[in-house]
Amino acid sequence: MKSRPPNQIGWVISLEDWALIRHLHRSEGLSQRAIARQLGIARDTVAGALASDDPPKYERASTPSAINEVEPRIRAFLSAYPTMSATVLAERVGWTGSISWFRERVRAIRPEYLPADPVDRLEHPPGRAIQCDLWFPAPKIALGAAHGGACQRR
Predict the structure, then answer these.
(1) Sign (positive/negative) of CA torsion 4, 6, 12, 15?
(2) Torsions phi, psi of 113, nearest 5?
(3) Which of 12, 77, 104, 117 is found 20 to 30 A from 132 (Cα to Cα)?
(4) Cα–Cα dist 82/14, whole Å
(5) What do you get for the CA distance between the two ends of the chain, in Å?
(6) Nearest residue to 73 (alpha-carbon basis) of 37, 106, 120, 108
(7) CATH number at residue 30
(8) CA angle 56, 61, 66 (to 5 degrees)
(9) Co-location of 9 and 52 in the same domain
(10) What is the residue range of 97's domain?
(11) Per-residue pLDDT reduced to its tens digit, 58-100
């Protein structure tokens, strides 16, 4: 097993090392401490490899975006003027980057500030809502001679 590179945060063990740790523990019955000593890694790494059902996968850390600096001002403008165009918003907040990227970001944020459309249809999944008409006083419903005349709801 390769040792951890110096000063590298977020180091992930390889798939082969993950499989080897699990094999040594399950098939050969070695303890976590013995595996860590044999492979020259930390016991926490061994414990993590044994606890995870999925093999390790590298995930890149998110980097700060240039739009994060102006996003509070974008949101302030959208709360006051929800239909303001992205081009005008870019001018008002002083955006100097790519306008197409700015438009894409505003398109993702804008629905939070738009008012509900009054003509949108209200739909309920089956079995989630019920409607009924209640008649007071109870009406008499004519059923015909075969059923004994009129019927009254109880």
Answers:
(1) negative
(2) -110, -10
(3) 117
(4) 48
(5) 81
(6) 106
(7) 1.10.10
(8) 160
(9) yes
(10) 70-112
(11) 778 888 888 899 999 999 999 999 999 999 999 999 999 999 9
